[in-house]
Design goal:
Layout (H helix, E strand, L loop, with lengths): L8 H16 L2 H10 L7 H20 L4 H24 L5 H31 L4 H17 L2 H8 L9 H19 L6 H27 L1 H35 L2 H20 L1
C-alpha cells in the first residue's frame, strides 16, 4: 500500500467536483435547522461521529498523498458537521448558543491537534514501509463514517421508515460528493481499496435512507389520501357553517319591517349628532 506518486488529471478533476459538493452538502441542512429552530429526526450523534471521522480521514488522505481536493475535504467536512452538531445542542438539548459555540471550538482545536500529531507521527514509519498504523487509521475512519449514518436508521425505525428532519438536498449533494470522490480514486494510477470502501459505505447507507422514505410513501399512500380527504371535508363543513350563519343573519335583517330599520337608522344618526355637539 504505497502512497500515490503521481495524480492523473482526471482524478484531480473528479476529486475537485467531489470537494465542491462536500463543501456545500450540509448548507441545506444547516438552513433547515435554523429556519425551523428544530433538529428533530437529525441525531446529534450522527453529526459528532461524522466530525470525528474527519480526523482519521484527513490523516489517511494526507499521508497517502491523495489529490489535493481529497486532502482538503475532511477539514471542511469537520467544520460543517461541527456547526450542525452545535445546532442540535441548541435546538434539541436547549444549550445556549454561546455554550454550544465554545464547545465546538474546543472540540475543533482538539481535532486539529490530533490530526496534526498523527500526520507527523505516521509519515516517518509509512515512508519506511510500515503500513499497519496508516491502515489502522483508515479502518477507523471508515468505521466512524459508517457509524455516523447508523443513528438515522433508528429514527427511521421510530417512524416506520419515514424520514423526518433530514434535508433531502443535503442527502443528495452528500451522495454526489461521495460518488465523485470514489470515481477520483478509481481514476488514480493505483486504486486505494480502503479509501474506496469509505466512500462506498456512505453511498450505500445514504441510498438506504432514500429508499426507506420512498417505501414509506408508497406504503402509506392510501392512508395519506384518506386523511387529506377528511381534512378537506372538515374544511368544507366549517366553511358551510360560516356561510349558513351569515345567510341567517342576512335573512333576519331582510325580514325586519322597513319602519323598524328606518327608526334604528334615525336613532343611530341622532346619537352621532349628540356626540358631535358634546
Amino acid at each position: 500500500m504505497a502512497p500515490q506518486s503521481t495524480i492523473p488529471l482526471p482524478s484531480t478533476i473528479l476529486g475537485t467536483i467531489g470537494t465542491i459538493f462536500w463543501c456545500v452538502q450540509l448548507l441545506p441542512q444547516l438552513w433547515t435547522n435554523h429556519r425551523s429552530k428544530s433538529t428533530e429526526g437529525l441525531p446529534g450523534t450522527m453529526m459528532f461521529l461524522w466530525a470525528l471521522s474527519g480526523v482519521p480521514t484527513g490523516v489517511y488522505a494526507i499521508v497517502q498523498h491523495f489529490n489535493l481536493p481529497l486532502q482538503i475535504q475532511p477539514q471542511i467536512f469537520i467544520l460543517l458537521t461541527l456547526l450542525c452538531f452545535a445546532q442540535t445542542l441548541v435546538y434539541h438539548d436547549r444549550w445556549s448558543a454561546a455554550r454550544a459555540l465554545l464547545t465546538i471550538l474546543l472540540v475543533a482545536l482538539v481535532f486539529a491537534g490530533a490530526e496534526a500529531g498523527l500526520i507527523v507521527g505516521l509519515r516517518g514509519p509509512y515512508a519506511s514501509g510500515v503500513d499497519a498504523p496508516v491502515l489502522a487509521v483508515g479502518v477507523v475512519a471508515a468505521v466512524l463514517l459508517a457509524a455516523g449514518i447508523v443513528p438515522p436508521y433508528f429514527e427511521l425505525a421510530k417512524r416506520n421508515g419515514r424520514v423526518v428532519g433530514i434535508n433531502f438536498w443535503f442527502l443528495a449533494v452528500d451522495w454526489l460528493g461521495a460518488f465523485f470522490n470514489l470515481m477520483a480514486l478509481v481514476a488514480q494510477d493505483a486504486f486505494d481499496v480502503l479509501g474506496g470502501v469509505m466512500f462506498a459505505v456512505v453511498l450505500a447507507l445514504e441510498t438506504g435512507i432514500f429508499v426507506s422514505h420512498v417505501v414509506w410513501r408508497v406504503r402509506t399512500r392510501r392512508g395519506r389520501r384518506e386523511k387529506s380527504a377528511v381534512v378537506e371535508v372538515e374544511a368544507d363543513e366549517e366553511g358551510g357553517k360560516e356561510q349558513s350563519a351569515q345567510a341567517r343573519e342576512e335573512a333576519e335583517l331582510g325580514s325586519r319591517p322597513s319602519t323598524v330599520v328606518a327608526e334604528e337608522l334615525r336613532d343611530l344618526e341622532k346619537g352621532r349628532g349628540e356626540r358631535d355637539l358634546g
